[in-house]
Design brief:
The protein is of the alpha/beta class. It folds into 2 domains: 153 residues, 3-Layer(aba) Sandwich (Rossmann fold); 133 residues, N-(1-d-carboxylethyl)-l-norvaline Dehydrogenase, domain 2, CATH 1.10.1040. The protein has 13 helices and 8 strands. It is globular.
Length: 299
């Protein structure tokens, strides 16, 4: 099977390696990046969507609309977005962005831990394909499943996309909290557990399966992005604690707050992260969180 990949960056190349490991042929469409080394590629995205039934999209949420407009997927394509779930700022699910910008209907999302450097170096990992279309799940599992990359299928498209969006935000929160004076594993544990509870409330409100939060795409992905120094999301939080400018998941956080507001769900941790990112004092922000009125522990 020939598998199209939109995006020639490291993530696109990592997915291509997984396709190869599964015994299939990847074809990368790159734009604005250097041609991928060794891997089959082209600077003509429409050629890839024309030649491949399955399209894996490996660009950032901020670049997704442009990439889909250039590649022009058609109704015969199955399109799986391997991104962070939600369009920065707008609150639109990435699979919905695909539907808005092209004629493809059968869409899905890939979630789960994805340490790109480990994948490129032959490491083992696992992921989850979610789609309301069984054929999308079946085709994507076939394209990626191997002894290197174990792939599960799910019908919880909303849950997989929600976890994809919340994980980088939680990782930044943990990085910020752990870097404050006097902080340790206690505050780390508090932010992690209450962050999952916060996400759980939003999951329930949008009709996602809360169990997805505790699988590969939720807790599994969260461990991968904050278990070691060097994760860009964790390091963005460290920079906030040290009151240094940093690129981070701020647009995703804004999109989550927009979504939560539409469903009348409070996200105090996410609000705190953005308050600090906009110039607030990180120590004061954490103290404000700690001083919120006590309540029973529940979601």
């Amino acid at each position: 099977m020939r598998v199209g990949i939109l995006g020639g960056g490291q993530w696109g190349q990592a997915l291509a390696r997984l396709v190869l490991a599964a015994g299939h042929e990847p074809w990368i469409a790159y734009h604005g990046e250097k041609p991928p080394h060794v891997l089959p590629s082209t600077s003509d995205p429409p050629a890839v969507t024309e030649a491949c039934d399955l399209i894996l999209v490996a660009v950032s949420g901020a670049r997704l609309r442009e990439s889909i407009r250039m590649a022009r997927p058609h109704p015969g394509n199955r399109v799986v977005v391997a991104g962070r779930g939600i369009e920065p700022g707008t609150g639109v699910w990435l699979t919905e962005v695909v539907r808005q910008e092209c004629d493809a209907v059968r869409v899905g999302a890939l979630g789960g831990p994805a340490p790109v450097d480990e994948i490129l170096n032959g490491g083992l990992c696992a992921g989850v394909i979610a789609s309301p279309y069984d054929e999308v799940c079946k085709l994507a599992v076939e394209a990626l499943h191997s002894t290197r990359y174990r792939v599960y299928a799910s019908a919880d498209l909303a849950g997989i996309q929600l976890t994809g969006a919340t994980v980088p935000v939680l990782a930044a929160l943990i990085g910020m909290a752990r870097s404050l004076p006097g902080a340790g594993v206690g505050v780390h544990a508090m932010v992690l557990s209450r962050g999952l509870a916060e996400t759980g409330r939003l999951a329930t409100a949008i009709g996602a399966e809360e169990s997805t939060l505790f699988g590969l795409a939720g807790v599994g992905d969260l461990i991968a992005v904050h278990a070691r120094r060097g994760s860009p999301y964790f390091e963005a939080g460290v920079a906030l604690a040290e009151q240094r400018p940093a690129d981070g998941p701020w647009g995703i956080a804004e999109a989550l707050l927009k979504l939560a507001s539409e469903h009348r769900v409070e996200l105090p941790l996410t609000e705190t992260l953005l308050r600090v990112q906009r110039g607030g004092d990180p120590v004061a922000a954490i103290h404000e969180l700690m001083s919120r009125q006590s309540a029973r522990e529940h979601r």
